[in-house]
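Same chain as my last thread, 212 residues:
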Amino acid sequence: GDSLHNPQKSRTLKRCLIMASPFFAALLSFAGVRFALKNPALVEKYYSSGLYPFLAKIISSVSNLIPVSLWDLFWLLTVVLVVAGLVLVIIRKLSLRLYLLRTGQFVALLYTLFYLSWGYNYFRPPIAIRIGMERASPEEGLFRAILDSLITETNNNRVQIVEEDYQHIDGLVEESYLRNSGALAISYPNGSRRPKRMVMSSLFARSDVSGY
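reply #2:
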């Protein structure tokens, strides 16, 4: 009751709650992850087929307005902020305690946003279960023969592609996916896709990441 009549205490309490809110959100997300691990059917029904399609449309509509990868911009901005923060700590324009607090809040928010905007899809039932496909155990010789045939046919049908072809090929991929996704019992991808060149392509290639 005293804090309600004490403006200073009330402001302090409000400030503490604001500072702690990213960590509370991360704890809720962690609890959600533990729940999702044990309830993939509920993830599929309420997140992957319910909330996520709505989120994907919003995220992709915003992303399509920007010609470069948002993920590249995010990492670039993160590196700049981390380095700038360390410089401010070194020259004593920012306390180490505040720097660590802000870093912790940022990580907590990133963890929360990752699972909310996409990450819970990792806990949906495997695609084999979703499309009713039985796992097969083919004879090794037959498997290798089919694999060799696929490799040979792929190499024989390889064609040179120039950058001017990308937009046309992208349209063909979208058209094919839309035409066949129903027969495969796979939901057509949510939102809209705009292929973008990776800003730091060579850097990611060195770490075996070819796209995202």
